[in-house]
Design goal:
Length: 253
């Protein structure tokens, strides 16, 4: 009897889970696959004026001649004064935020990469790769890959237009899903970034695609309307930037 009751309970749970799954149209899926985050850059332009704001409120402007990193994250920035040419070395711990411009060589490499994957034509905007706009970095205390001791790093915000609830930061060491190509032709499939650093409230974490489902309720579960429209058994990691955008829009009315 107990076994029958248990089997019935499991059947009801699985039926309920299946019932709430949403099937999206091709047009909806195409929309959700659009990559809405900004491009992540790892190298600054030494020819354009950068702006660094220290924790004490001091603003330093000049050419970013060098950045030093550990595990891909910035821990030291060298700024050369635009007038005196005198270099100043600033530790990430003392910087509140900064604005840099992307390196032209890195932009060129990203354009080549964009053109080498057919999937990009449908999901990404080339102008994000060739942007001349400033890149925003903020100081965050984070555990790299959720394994290291907490430490302050300067992290690039890649959703600055919709980061008021969930902030997403570029992971310089992120890998991408693989695709395939034939005889040197542009790659088919793949190219989806596998990880980001994500902050909601006071919690910041390294979010990998394999852990997306486990953290779905934390990220979006406080909006019942959103969860009904985009239940976690109906969406994929590929839609992450859209989901953050849509969640933010729904919360803001």
């Amino acid at each position: 009897m107990k076994l029958k009751t248990l089997l019935l309970a499991l059947f009801l749970v699985s039926t309920a889970s299946f019932a709430q799954k949403v099937k999206y149209s091709k047009e909806e899926i195409k929309k959700m696959e659009q990559y809405l985050f900004n491009e992540g850059f790892n190298a600054p332009s030494p020819k354009k004026t950068s702006t660094v704001i220290l924790k004490d409120g001091t603003t330093v402007k000049g050419f970013c001649s060098k950045i030093d990193t550990k595990k891909g994250q910035i821990f030291e920035v060298s700024i050369k004064d635009s007038v005196t040419k005198k270099p100043t070395v600033l530790e990430a711990d003392n910087i509140s935020e900064m604005y840099l411009f992307p390196n032209e060589a890195e932009k060129f490499m990203k354009v080549a990469k964009y053109m080498g994957n057919i999937r990009n034509y449908q999901t990404k905007k080339l102008k994000n790769t060739t942007t001349n706009g400033r890149i925003h970095f903020v100081n965050q205390t984070v555990s790299l890959k959720n394994k290291k001791d907490d430490k302050e790093f300067l992290m690039q915000v890649i959703n600055p237009e919709f980061d008021d609830i969930i902030s997403v930061y570029h992971d310089p060491r992120a890998k991408e899903t693989t695709g395939f190509s034939v005889m040197g032709s542009p790659q088919l499939g793949g190219g989806v970034i596998k990880s980001y650093y994500v902050k909601k409230g006071d919690k910041i974490m390294w979010l990998h695609k394999d852990d997306f489902e486990d953290n779905y309720d934390f990220l979006f579960g406080d909006n019942a309307e959103f969860m009904k429209k985009y239940p976690k058994n109906s969406v994929e990691w590929d839609y992450f930037s859209f989901l953050v955008y849509e969640y933010t829009a729904m919360n803001n009315g």
